[in-house]
């Protein structure tokens, strides 16, 4: 089928995510610290829903306000969660905010509760995605901490949050402000952090759950030669090691301190960089479950930041 792309709304600076709460509003995350509301007619609110520009890193590149997720019971409790790079020290911060009780189009700026702070050794590979799974838990995607080639091998180090997918319970609070799901794969394992759900990621940039099946799609940006899409089926018990830095896609990258290949989960799809300059940087998408394009029903759609190419993956039984 042939698809045409049309401009729907303009006026955004460095948008990195669009999130919906289940009504007719779209919340557009801008990297430099603003969340703005877009209606279904393409109109953008003049007043931001939330303005964190005073505390969020303004250096651009891969830092900034990077993720937004609304609590599954947002209309009852008003809670939403953000992932941002703190300007003062470059750390990743995951915080909870509340909507203004008197105005649903405004957040209460003073309601911030910081749940997680992660030191970032470099300014790149922050990851940043936040999303709630079908299980009601909050999933947090973090890159390997940056530089090139993961020099400290953090993605393969289970005592570091970097290069991981984390899974936490935001409805059970302890001294950290959140709880650990009892079925997380490394609970009570002294060699790993309880929050870890999966590991071996370089810079996961946009992940999504299939809203029909619960399957989890994870796009991971490669180093120099490969981009990859990882797949975690619904019902997974977690603990998958997606291979970085031992592998870039299916190709060996740095095999020092690595295990046999059968210990890793390899991507369901990968593609090679071509040419010079910005030749590959995957951006994950969604499995289409709408009614407008029947030919695309059940198809995973994603793109590449550098090339602008749009890809589809069709699952086979």
UniProtKB/TrEMBL annotation:
Superkingdom classification of source: Bacteria
Entry-linked InterPro entries: 6-blade_b-propeller_TolB-like, Glc/Sorbosone_DH, Quinoprot_gluc/sorb_DH_b-prop
Record-annotated Glucose/Sorbosone dehydrogenase domain positions: 13-298
Pfam families according to UniProt: GSDH (PF07995)
Protein name in UniProt: Glucose dehydrogenase
Organism: Mariniphaga anaerophila
Species classification: Bacteria, Pseudomonadati, Bacteroidota, Bacteroidia, Marinilabiliales
């Amino acid at each position: 089928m042939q698809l045409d792309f049309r401009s729907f709304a303009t006026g955004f600076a460095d948008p990195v995510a669009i999130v919906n709460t289940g009504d007719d509003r779209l919340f557009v995350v801008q990297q430099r610290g603003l969340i703005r509301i877009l209606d279904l007619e393409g109109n953008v609110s003049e007043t931001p829903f939330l303005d964190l520009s005073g505390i969020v890193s303004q250096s651009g590149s891969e830092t900034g306000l990077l993720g937004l997720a609304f609590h599954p019971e947002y209309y009852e409790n008003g809670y939403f969660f953000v992932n941002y790079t703190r300007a003062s020290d470059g750390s990743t911060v995951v915080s909870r905010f509340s909507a203004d009780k008197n105005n649903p189009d405004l957040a209460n700026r003073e309601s911030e509760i910081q749940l997680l702070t992660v030191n970032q050794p470099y300014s790149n590979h922050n990851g940043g995605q936040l999303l709630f799974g079908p299980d009601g838990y909050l999933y947090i995607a973090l890159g390997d901490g940056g530089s090139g080639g993961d020099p400290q091998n953090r993605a393969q180090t289970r005592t570091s949050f970097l290069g991981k997918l984390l899974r936490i319970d935001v409805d059970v609070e302890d001294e950290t402000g959140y709880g650990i799901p009892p079925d997380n794969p490394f609970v009570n394992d002294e060699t790993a952090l309880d929050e870890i759900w999966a590991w071996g990621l370089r810079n996961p940039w946009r992940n999504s759950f299939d809203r029909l099946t619960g399957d989890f799609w994870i796009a991971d940006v490669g180093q120099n030669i490969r981009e990859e899409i990882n797949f975690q089926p619904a019902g997974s018990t977690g603990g998958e090691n997606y291979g970085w830095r031992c592998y870039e896609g299916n190709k060996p990258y740095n095999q020092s301190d690595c295990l046999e290949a059968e210990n890793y989960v390899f991507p369901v799809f990968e593609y090679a960089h071509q040419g010079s300059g910005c030749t590959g940087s995957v951006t994950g998408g969604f499995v289409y479950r709408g009614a407008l394009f029947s030919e695309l029903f059940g198809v995973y759609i994603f793109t590449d930041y550098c090339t602008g190419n749009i890809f589809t993956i069709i699952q086979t039984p």
